[in-house]
Design brief:
The protein is α/β, with parallel strands linked by helices. It is 42% helix and 19% strand. It is built from seven helices and seven strands, in the order E-H-E-H-H-E-E-E-H-E-H-H-E-H. It has a five-stranded parallel sheet, covered by helices on one side. A two-stranded antiparallel sheet has the order 3-4. Helix 5 (131-145) packs across helix 6. The longest helix has 22 residues, at 187-208.
């Protein structure tokens, strides 16, 4: 099993990079575990207070559960990944079944900030993008998907996203094995990454005596 961590600022293009990796590999061979699914449950907090929660600091994530799930996948076990609602800021009762796969991608803004997770990653990637481009994407996403107004998004960017990016996310870039500038539009970097992943998979197959051609 190859575990890949893909980090980067909010709106940097991480999801685009993940999708391009998935599309380059055989169907069903990639499992994706978004960091956002592991936000701590906030149902015990009054609804009017939940909007004040800082979701851009490492303490917002239940890292121990994510670590345990990765360990169980490596042991060949199936896990039930939690789901999280951005509208209510609570963990949902529904879960997503994740089965052991040749490639597991852990994706999220804070993935490279946790030392335990970093040590479990075979490949560490940081998707980089200009702050202006990220802000535009965040405004579009949060207004459409999370029911926020542009004013709320901009205020949150200035008060939370930008400071947390400078404090936690940007410094984590130094741990990356590969930095992808220009976000998801950098096809050269993404092709290099996917070629490397395929070479690692084929090498692993050769060690196990599996014909790599059967992966295609």
């Amino acid at each position: 099993m190859l575990i890949i961590g893909i980090a980067g600022g909010t709106g940097s293009g991480k999801t685009t990079v993940v999708n391009k990796i998935i599309n380059s590999l055989p169907a069903g061979e990639v499992a994706v575990m978004p960091q956002d699914s592991y936000y701590k449950d906030s149902s015990h907090i009054p609804p009017q207070e939940r909007s004040k929660i800082n979701f851009d600091e490492p303490n917002a994530i239940e890292w121990t559960l994510l670590v345990r799930h990765l360990e169980e996948l490596k042991e060949g076990k199936t896990v039930q990944m939690p789901t999280y609602s951005y509208l209510t800021c609570t963990r949902q009762t529904e879960t997503v079944e994740i089965r052991p796969s040749d490639v597991v991608i852990v994706e999220g803004i804070l993935v490279l900030t946790d030392p335990v997770i970093r040590n479990m990653l075979d490949i560490k990637v940081f998707v980089d993008a200009d702050a202006d481009d990220r802000l535009i994407r965040v405004i579009a996403r949060d207004c459409i998907e999370r029911g926020r107004t542009p004013e709320i998004v901009i205020n949150r960017y200035q008060e939370v996203l930008k400071p947390m990016h400078c404090q936690y996310i940007e410094p984590s870039k130094r741990y990356a094995d590969l930095i992808v500038p220009q976000g998801g539009s950098n096809t050269v970097a993404i092709n290099l990454l996917t070629d490397y992943i395929e070479s690692r998979l084929h090498r692993g197959c050769a060690l196990r005596g599996v014909n790599p051609a059967t992966l295609n």
